[in-house]
UniProtKB/TrEMBL annotation:
<dbReference type="InterPro" id="IPR004635">
    <property type="entry name" value="Pept_S49_SppA"/>
</dbReference>
<feature type="compositionally biased region" description="Basic and acidic residues">
    <location>
        <begin position="55"/>
        <end position="64"/>
    </location>
</feature>
<keyword id="KW-1133">Transmembrane helix</keyword>
<feature type="compositionally biased region" description="Basic and acidic residues">
    <location>
        <begin position="1"/>
        <end position="16"/>
    </location>
</feature>
<dbReference type="InterPro" id="IPR047272">
    <property type="entry name" value="S49_SppA_C"/>
</dbReference>
<keyword id="KW-0472">Membrane</keyword>
<comment type="similarity">
    <text>Belongs to the peptidase S49 family.</text>
</comment>
<feature type="domain" description="Peptidase S49">
    <location>
        <begin position="195"/>
        <end position="336"/>
    </location>
</feature>
<keyword id="KW-0645">Protease</keyword>
<feature type="compositionally biased region" description="Polar residues">
    <location>
        <begin position="17"/>
        <end position="44"/>
    </location>
</feature>
<protein>
    <submittedName>
        <fullName>Signal peptide peptidase SppA</fullName>
    </submittedName>
</protein>
<dbReference type="GO" id="GO:0006508">
    <property type="term" value="P:proteolysis"/>
</dbReference>
<feature type="transmembrane region" description="Helical">
    <location>
        <begin position="96"/>
        <end position="118"/>
    </location>
</feature>
<keyword id="KW-0812">Transmembrane</keyword>
<feature type="region of interest" description="Disordered">
    <location>
        <begin position="1"/>
        <end position="64"/>
    </location>
</feature>
<dbReference type="InterPro" id="IPR029045">
    <property type="entry name" value="ClpP/crotonase-like_dom_sf"/>
</dbReference>
<keyword id="KW-0720">Serine protease</keyword>
Amino acid sequence: MSDEQHRGSSDDRSQSDKVPSSDQVSDRWTQGPDVSQQAKQRPQSGAEGSGAHCSGEKNDDAETLRERQRLTQMEMMDRWVGGVLTEQRRTRRWKLFFRLMLLAIVLISLTTMLYRVFLAEPTASLPTQRHLALVEVHGVITSDAPANAERIIKGLNRAWSSSGATAVVLHIDSPGGSPVQSQRIYAEIMRLRDQGDKPIIAVIEDIGASGAYYIASAADSIVASRASLVGSIGVIYSGFGFQEAINQIGIERRVMTAGENKAFLDPFQPLDDGVADFWQSVLTQTHEQFIDDVKAGRGERLSDSPEVFSGLIWSGEQALALGLVDELASLEQVARDQVGDAEWENYTPSLDPFERLTRRFTQTAAEVLGLQHTHAPLRFQAQ
């Protein structure tokens, strides 16, 4: 190809490049160098902007997530700290409670000790004016009850030694109790009675039966109300036999003793005739002691009726006819007869508050459980 032909073809190609296409001719807004330049730059700048926008959104989401995590951690930390503080406050409260309890126990013990030392026995301030010296025998007579031999005997001696007392009054309201405790009190009353310094009068309120009447029989005279219950001169032992029940349940009873009769009152073993006869002899001998002491105290005032010692309990009027009491009267009438006025002083040793509380709790628990509140298997006690 010649140079002229080559230049011609080159010119034709350059001119053909300069001729716009049909789309470009129809859209006049796309013509021009500026528009073409902007068109070339727009997609690039749009892509860059879209990428930056997406990147910004991602950065914002990550920051929000981190902030939420931080807030969640702070909330969990606050809850943990709050729980620790609550537990510490609870622990401090319990520590304070136990310290206060310990302090209360110490104070009660100290108060009880001071009470016993300075207030329990005010012997230095015994009244000197004329009066009845009262000693109370209330409730069941046992070693671990308020009506125990040691306490009543102490009250008797204090009342006897009072210069202003014209008479010593046993104020009785008891169904009886332990034979041993009753015998101890009886012996002390008889000892004081033999001294003959002042009369000893037994005043029976609602009931003076069995061991309580044992005590009353040692007095110089016995006074009761018409409706008082008096007597029940007898001895009782009560128990249960469970040998049939234990066989039905299928329980094996294992008892080992040294001495063939050591477990003769075991409620899970049958009571044979020999054991029953022996135990009846014990009851009979104790009953004879009771009868002999009542006769020694009452003397010829007692009726010859065999029913007097049969264990029956009588009203005050019936007891008067049988010689079990000497007079139907009240404590106020006795005081007027002896002093001229209803004046008396109580010489029964006081129980300290702590001991009274524990005794009341023990008695209540025994009553709820249906347990006999006595250590003695035999009882001078009305049923």
